[in-house]
Amino acid sequence: METENQPDRAGSNKSRTYFTLAIVFLVAMALSWSVDASLIYIFLGVASFFLFLGFYNNPRPNKPSQRKERRFQSTGSLKPESEIPLTETFTNFFQRANIKFPPRGSAGPINAPKLVKFVGIGFFLVFIIPIIISIFRGENGSGTNDYFSAGEQFYFSQQYDSAYKSYRRAMLEDPENVQAIVGYGNVLVIRNERDSAIMMFNRALEISPDYKEASYNKALAMYDQKKYNEAIEVLQPVLDANPDYYNAMLLMGDCYYIQKKFDEAILWYENAYQNGGMRSSMLCHIMAYIYDTKGESDKAINLYQEALSYDSTIVDIYRRLGELLPGEDGNFYRIRAAQFPQ
Predict the structure, then answer these.
(1) Do the domain assignments include residue 201?
(2) With contact defined as beta carbons under 8 Å apart, do 205 and 218 qualify?
(3) Which residue segment(s) compose the domain that 62 sits in?
(4) What end-to-end distance do the CA atoms of the chain give, in Å?
(5) 144, 219, 258, 266: which sits with the fewest CB atoms below 10 Å from its CB?
(6) What is the Cα–Cα distance from 272 to 9, expressed in whole angstroms?
(7) Residue 52 lies in a domain
(8) Residue 76 — very low, low, confident or very high, per pLDDT cuts 50/70/90?
């Protein structure tokens, strides 16, 4: 009995090993899902192969006489399963499934060696060809789109190292993909490589001169470098061509405001505020401050109060309103200012 159980144990151990390997490759496929589609095909194909081996080597309840008969060749000599040729393995597999094969060389259905070739060709068609297609699919642009989409997802989830790699792969697949180029430039800005980022934005504008996002991001990088006049020169033609580009208007106002050119700044801010519906505590605070310095107290008070409606923790606004509003009207703001730590 122990001798008969040994093949079952060996088959069970081999089956568990193959299933474990299949799980490992499936996990690897899951981890590489967003990296490269060709890896998905490779890992899926290998996992499927090990799953097949796992099921094939899984012990089956058979009669002792059947098991002994299967382990003997026609000459009657005992042969370990590990030394059975591949063609004989497939033959035994289909015999257990009650599939009949004619003698070799006779007319009739396909024989075992041909079946092995057929299975090999099928495996090639199912797994290898998709892998080859996925490797060269950048020629029709689908690979580029996948890399760019992955880069966008990584960028907005603040995984900038992964976004950097994905945008770069998209650019390698399609050197004229301006969206990928601009995305790559945005990551360079975050990496504090603004000169390189500006080169990327210039490259995008050479390909598509009307791509306004490239101009805006270039101007923003220049603003960060304190090149305010250069940023204004970049933004002006963009705003001439896109008079409703309100984010660019705010950046234009910032470029003038930081240089204390309040008359020019308030024109851009007001346009974005009135026509673009741009509302924020920061914008209202800056506009209120400009009107305050110009002596237009009524406008300043209204904007200060609106800024507090967006952010009620700005102590300087409470203090300033306490100074601008006399008597009871200003008491509330003076009391609130005193409540904050000095």
Answers:
(1) no
(2) yes
(3) 2-137
(4) 89
(5) 258
(6) 77
(7) yes
(8) very low
C-alpha torsion sign, points 236, 237, 239, 245: negative
Is 50 within 8 Å of 21 (Cβ atoms)?
A: yes
Which of 137, 160, 188 marks a domain boundary?
A: 137
The amino acid at residue 26 is L
Number of Cβ atoms within 10 Å of the Cβ of 153 = 14
- Asked whether residue 125 is assigned to any structural domain, the reply reads yes
The Cα 126–Cα 49 span in angstroms is: 12
Handedness of CA 189, 191, 192, 198 (dihedral sign): negative
Tokens 């591949």 appear where? 86
Tokens of 191: 């990496």
CA angle (255, 257, 258) in 5-degree steps: 70
Predicted TM-score (pTM) of the model is 0.61
pLDDT digits (tens, 9 = 90+) for 168-214: 999 999 999 999 999 999 999 999 999 999 999 999 999 999 999 99
Q: How many angstroms separate the CA atoms of 301 and 330, rounded? A: 11
What tens digit of pLDDT does each residue of 239-281 get? 999 999 999 999 999 999 999 999 999 999 999 999 999 999 9
- Candidates 96, 112, 21; CA nearest to 60 is 96
Q: Is residue 318 part of a domain?
A: yes
CA distance 77 to 73: 6
Total domains in the fold of the chain: 2
Q: What is the pLDDT of residue 37?
A: 57
Tokens 């040729």 identify what position? 85
Q: Is the pLDDT of residue 69 over 90?
A: no
What is the pLDDT at residue 159?
94
